[in-house]
Each structure stands twice: as C-alpha cells, then as structure tokens.
C-alpha cells in the first residue's frame, strides 16, 4: 500500500426515496451531517471535501459541484467533485483515500448524492444527454436498450439460462428488506421476475433497479488523526487497495460479454493490497464478501467475473445455487444492492462502499453477515459502460 | 417558475416548474462530416490505423490506442454487409413511453472493420446473433445517420 495509511471511520445514509421532499443540497446535508456525527467530529475538524454526483441533467442544475458544495460541508475548504457516471460512488472514497494518502489532507468528508425525480417525464430521458450527439442520439438510445444488447451478448456467449440471472433479483431485493434506507425490499420468486413486463428483450421490469433520490457520506482520516481523536479501531475500516480503469469511449467497440475494465481495476486494487494471486478460489477466501455493482441483475454476475471472483460464465450458476447468499461462504451484495435499496446513481454506489464499512465494523444490524468478516470489496461501473472502480477495505484490527 | 399542478393535491409548494431553454448547433467534426457526406452518396466510410491494423467505423481523426493522427489517406469505403453481434426488441421509447409498435436495435460488426456499429435491425423475421446483415438505404438522403434505414438479415 502506497502513501499514508487511511481509514474510513463513519458513514451517513439518507433513506432512498422515489421523490424526496428535500433538494439535492438538503439531501447532501443530511448524509454529511450524519457521517460527521457518527465520527464524533464537526465540520471544523474537516480539511478537505469531496463530492460525487452523476449527470447534471438529472437534477436540472448545471455545475452540480458548486451547487452541492455548502450542503456537502465545503464552505471555505478545498472541495472537488469527481464524476465517472455510475462509477462515481466508489470513485469518491477512492478520491478521499488519495487526498489523505498523499498527505494533502488529514480528515476528509465525502458525499455522494443524486436526485433522479426532478427530470420529467422520467430519468430515462436524461440519459439521452450522455450519448454521442452525431450518431447515437439520433437513434434515440436509452440505457435499458444498450444494457439489453449487453445482456443478450452475455447470455448468448455462455448459454446462460434466464432463471440464473433472475435469481439475483430475488436475492438482492430480499436482502434489502433488512436495509433501513431501502426503497424496494421485496420477497419475490424467480417466476415473478421472469414474468414481469418486458422493457427491451431480454430485460424485464424486475431485472432493473428503481431510480431514487438519496445521499451517502463518509469520513476518512489518516492513522495519526484516528489516534488523535481516539476513534476505536473496531469502528475503522482501512483502505487496502483501490483501482479504476476506463475502456474505450466507443461503447460499441468491445465484446460486451466481459468487462475487461473491471478486471484491470480489480487487479490494480488487489496488487496494491499485496494480493498477487488472482485465482477465484484464492480471492474468495481473501475477501470475506463483495458488493459488486448491480443496476441490472446480470451486471452483478458480469462484474463478479470481471472482478476475478468467478470464472467467465460461472457466476450465474453460482448465484442460482445460493453460493452468494448472505449466509453462504461468499456473500454477495448483503446490502440488497441497487436492485433492492434503490439506484440514486452516485449515492447508490456510495451505499455499496458504505456497506463494506458497516459489515467490517459490525454495524450492519439485521444485514450483518453471520460469519467473521475481515475484508470486503465494493465495485461500481459507469460512464458509457466503460469505467470500473474498485475499493477494497479491511477491518480495523486486521494486519 | 410556478408551482406544479401536482402540488394542488396537498396544498403545498413542494415543486416548481422549470426547464433549460437552450438549443445547440453541434459541430459534426472533421471525421464525422466526411462520414455523413459519404452516407449521402450511399457509401459507408471508415478509416484505418496502419500501425495498429485497426479500422474505425465511424472514422476518427486519431487512433485511441497508438494516438497517431489518421489523415485523409486513411479513409476508405467499407462493405455494406456485416454480422449481427447483438440485438434487442424495444417496447418503450427513450423517454420511457410505451411504443405502439416495438422494433429492433442492433450491434453490427460491419465487414472489414474492427468496431461495432449501432443501428436499427429491420425487416428481419428471426434475428440470430451471428447472422449476415446488409445495409438498407433511405431514398431521401440528407447526410445523417438516417440516410441508412438500418440493416436487414440476409
Ligand atoms: Zn493506432
């Protein structure tokens, strides 16, 4: 691990809602304040602020970094916004890590926020603004369609039965029943997922995460400051490795069945953490659990393969057979994920990073993984399907 | 900027109407203008990075890998046939409104290119990944992506 040792010491999460009464800035304030309170510090102790938020089009506010600054605690402080689309929520704590590891800051407050309910008639229309203006926008793409193309390619390449993919919706929406921020925890059957409405074949309604409003914040500190504030180590999760990677910006220009950019980001993070053996069996022992990005059910599986946690084409069967259930050997998305907790873009991936912290510090309540957990991973994916962001953290007492 | 109609129900001012009243004249750019002019003449133009032996469709003025500039002599007409690499049948439009008639979108690997091309799949009864497809032209061509109606299974 390069640079100074950096720990996450608290998180704050608003409830994820279909339509919040609060503005984006007010949501940011609530989660930021909660994170400060949970760390037992005030804004005066903070020396750097990081904001993560996805396309400006959703909030109908341009320059969201400036707009969100005060709500995120940035008044009179060095403040920056990072933005890699859906990958943002995991990238923001990575930014927190390097701003402390570099020695620039000692205490950073990080907020990821998204309000998807402002844009009319639906968030889907906003996604049009992220595509190439010359060719793709003229064919009116939306994300459901391009993910349908990817999902079809993935299923075709490995001969994956739809039931195996549908099982991820059942697992994650079920896990979300235990998450206090969750919007759509549900007990479902594979048949209900399979028989839900077709949006763009092979994508059905219950294959997708619901858009939401919400915010998630973190406090991260140098080891020296953790000692100075007297924060107990069982309340700390150390950053163990980080990685991110951007594949070609021509989203059509990859074989969509396998996310190479996630593989590259993951290997960067594993190597940084000193984990050089990248075989799935070793990695599933080294990591106690994972929170891969699941805006669609097939994406959790796709990402598990990119993360090297399962071989190519092997994740769907494993999920179907229960290998990734919360009480199994290798729990995946114990939080309930985007599918169950909800998908306020940057905050959704922020929620995944927060889950790694909460599980490692034994604060996950009814969601707490029954076995001992020492190390966890959060991963997100974004831009136009070509960014992978990976954060590995370990428990405060783990060497 | 007045309260929305939805507020009336709960006698609140929870929401206010608004929009960004802006319009754009996007620059087509050096390579895309050539590509559009080609479409008008029923030609599909790509260009090739000789160093990487990689053909871009649509063309680009640089190779994203070796970062070489791809000059005028790199452009070439590519075949109007290709392979269907993936497809989806769309039931909602891009705004999320239900379509009266669903239709197909596809990713096509045009022959002699190394990229995938995004367009409609039309008049194809039983689409199958791996099938051969051919470009179908619009009779009224103006120099846009709509000069192609789409690709059809052959
Ligand atoms: Zn090249």
What does this 3D model show about the protein?
The complex is a heterodimer of chains A (399) and B (154). Chain A has helices spanning 24-39, 56-59, 64-68, 88-101, 123-127, 143-158, 162-175, 190-195, 223-229, 260-272, 280-286, 297-306, 315-320, 337-341, 345-360, and strands spanning 6-13, 48-52, 79-82, 107-115, 198-201, 203-204, 213-222, 237-246, 289-291, 375-382, 387-395. Chain A is built from 15 helices and eleven strands. Chain A has a single domain (6-120, 211-395), classed as 3-Layer(aba) Sandwich (Peroxisomal Thiolase, Chain A, domain 1), CATH 3.40.47.10. The model of chain A has no long low-confidence stretch (mean pLDDT 95). With 399 residues, chain A is α/β, with parallel strands linked by helices. In chain A, strand 10 (375-382) and strand 11 (387-395) form a beta hairpin. With 154 residues, chain B is mainly beta. Chain B has one domain: OB fold (Dihydrolipoamide Acetyltransferase, E2P) (Beta Barrel), CATH 2.40.50. Chain B has one helix and eight strands. A five-stranded antiparallel sheet of chain B has the order 6-5-4-7-8, with no helix packed on it. A three-stranded antiparallel sheet of chain B has the order 2-1-3. In chain B, a hairpin with a 5-residue loop joins strand 4 and strand 5 (98-110). The A-B interface holds A 21, 60, 62, 121-122, 124-125, 127-128, 133-136, 138-142, 144-145, 148-150, 152-153, 156, 197-203, 248-250, 252-253, 256 and B 14, 18-20, 24, 26, 28-29, 32, 36, 56, 58, 64, 85-97, 105-107, 114-120, 129, 144-146. Bound molecules: zinc ion. Zinc ion binds next to loops of chain B.
Number of strands of chain A: 11
User: What is the terminal-to-terminal distance of chain A?
Assistant: 12 Å
The major β-sheet of chain B equals: 5 strands, antiparallel
Cofactors and ligands: zinc ion
- Mean pLDDT of chain B, to the nearest integer, reads 93
The backbone outline of chain B, from C-alpha atoms, is extended
| Strands in their spatial order, largest beta sheet of chain B | 6-5-4-7-8
Judged by helices, strands and strand pairing, the structural class of chain B is mainly beta
Radius of gyration of chain A: 19 Å
Helix content of chain B: under 10%
Number of helices of chain A: 15
The oligomeric state of the chains shown is: heterodimer
Q: How many DSSP-defined strands of chain B?
A: 8
Strand ordering within the main sheet of chain A: 3-2-4-7-1-8-11-10-9
The structural domain count of chain A equals 1
**CATH architectural name of chain B:** Beta Barrel
Largest protein-protein interface: A-B, 39 and 40 residues
Supply Rg of chain B. Answer: 21 Å
Count of the separate structural domains of chain B: 1
């Amino acid at each position: 691990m390069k640079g100074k040792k950096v720990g996450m010491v608290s998180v704050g999460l608003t409830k994820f809602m279909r339509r919040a009464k609060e503005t984006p800035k007010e949501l940011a304030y609530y989660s930021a304040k909660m994170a400060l309170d949970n760390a037992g510090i005030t804004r005066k102790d903070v020396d750097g602020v990081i904001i993560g938020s996805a396309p400006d089009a959703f909030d109908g506010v341009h320059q969201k970094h400036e707009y969100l600054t005060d709500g995120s605690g940035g008044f009179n402080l060095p403040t920056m916004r990072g933005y890699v689309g859906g990958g943002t929520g995991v990238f923001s704590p990575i930014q927190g890590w390097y701003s402390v590891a570099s020695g620039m800051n000692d205490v950073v407050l990080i907020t990821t926020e998204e309000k998807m309910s402002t844009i009319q008639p639906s968030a889907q229309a906003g996604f049009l603004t992220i595509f190439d203006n010359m060719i793709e926008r003229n064919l009116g793409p939306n994300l459901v369609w391009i993910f349908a193309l990817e999902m079809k390619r993935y299923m075709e390449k490995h001969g994956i039965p739809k039931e195996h993919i549908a099982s991820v919706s059942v697992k994650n929406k079920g896990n979300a029943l235990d998450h206090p921020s969750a919007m759509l925890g549900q007990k479902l059957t594979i048949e209900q997922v399979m028989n839900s409405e077709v949006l763009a074949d092979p994508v059905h309604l219950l294959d997708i995460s619901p858009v939401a409003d919400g915010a998630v914040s973190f406090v991260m500190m140098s080891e020296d400051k953790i000692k100075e504030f007297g924060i107990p180590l069982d309340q700390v999760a150390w950053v163990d490795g980080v990685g991110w990677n951007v594949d070609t910006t021509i989203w059509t220009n990859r074989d969509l069945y396998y996310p190479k950019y996630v593989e590259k980001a993951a290997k960067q993070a594993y190597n940084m953490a000193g984990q050089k053996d990248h075989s799935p069996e070793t990695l599933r022992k080294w990591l106690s659990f994972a929170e891969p990005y699941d805006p669609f059910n097939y994406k959790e599986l796709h990402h598990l393969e990119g993360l090297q946690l399962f071989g190519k084409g092997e994740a769907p069967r494993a999920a179907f057979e229960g290998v990734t259930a919360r009480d199994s050997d290798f729990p995946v998305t114990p939080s309930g994920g985007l599918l169950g907790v909800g998908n306020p873009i940057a905050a959704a991936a922020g929620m995944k990073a927060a889950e790694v912290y909460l599980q490692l510090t034994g604060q996950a309540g009814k969601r707490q993984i029954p076995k001992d957990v020492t190390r966890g991973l959060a991963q997100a994916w974004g831009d136009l399907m070509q960014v992978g962001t990976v954060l590995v953290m370990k428990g405060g007492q783990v060497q | 900027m007045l309260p929305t109609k939805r507020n009336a129900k709960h006698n609140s001012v929870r929401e206010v109407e608004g929009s960004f009243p802006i319009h754009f004249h996007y620059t087509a750019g050096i390579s895309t203008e050539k590509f559009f002019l080609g479409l008008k003449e029923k030609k599909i133009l790509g260009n090739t990075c000789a160093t990487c032996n990689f053909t871009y469709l649509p063309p680009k003025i640089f190779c994203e890998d070796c970062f070489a500039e791809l000059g005028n002599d790199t452009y070439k007409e590519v075949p109007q046939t290709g392979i269907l690499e993936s497809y989806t049948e769309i039931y909602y439009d891009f705004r999320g409104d239900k379509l009266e008639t669903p239709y197909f979108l596809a990713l096509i690997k045009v022959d002699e290119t190394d990229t995938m091309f995004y367009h409609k799949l039309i008049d194809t009864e039983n689409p199958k990944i791996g099938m051969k497809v051919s470009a179908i032209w619009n009779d009224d061509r103006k120099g846009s992506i709509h000069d192609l109606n789409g690709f059809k299974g052959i």
